[in-house]
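Worked example 2:
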Amino acid sequence: MYPFEYVRPASVEEAIGLRRADAGAQWLAGGMTLLPSMKLRLAAPSQLIDLTDVEGLDEWSIGDEHIVLGSMSSHRRVAEADEVRTRIQALSTVAAGIGDPQVRNRGTLGGSIANNDPAADYPAALLGLGATIRTSQREISADEFFKDFFETVLEDDELVVAVSFPVPRRAAYLKFRTPGSRYALVGVMVAETRDGVRVAVTGAGPGVYRATQLETALAEDFRPEALVGLDMSPDGLNADMHGSPEYRAHLTGVLARRATAQAIACEN
């Protein structure tokens, strides 16, 4: 690693002030991507601003129609919380399937979505459930938040504070894991919300996206059978040692059908 300074602010205002004062500084949430990048000398921040002690970033608000989770909520906490599981079981499933126990203990909701890894699970959860991201400056819908490969609409000095998830009528998430990393080769979130059916896909392409073809079919008939025979286009999907675009397109359809069946079984 290159030399860097380490600071631990106590408030959102202090954290933002430190970031504005040093263009080379970076916020540290769970560090599951940043720290390995630093070890490999792929990243060299002049200062790490540890968000662990920032007041309010781990607070939750649980209601019948929405649950609001602070950005510093660990994956383990989300996975194991009864108040999450009973309202949005699919969200518990997402968190429980991230990485390994060490990653789930340290990794955070806010860190994951701000990093926006194209094979991460949380972006599909937010997009599929129609979540709203609350930052230090504004509220952003999940449809607008994720832009491209490791890119979001966040400004350099804009901090994710919390995420608000509307409680769906029914939802489920399934992924086909990449061997070793446990990232999604393809992951699919299917949800029937108050505003309609949403299907979000991660891992298949260069970024998380909504599968509108599947949404249209499920809006007319929310059953796995409604997706039988739909051919998913491989255009623009990833190709690597783990799978071709055609393979990922096929997996998307298979996982969407299975997730739909699970969602029906777990209807709220």
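The domain at 5-50 is CATH 3.30.43.10 (Uridine Diphospho-n-acetylenolpyruvylglucosamine Reductase; domain 2). The radius of gyration is 18 Å.
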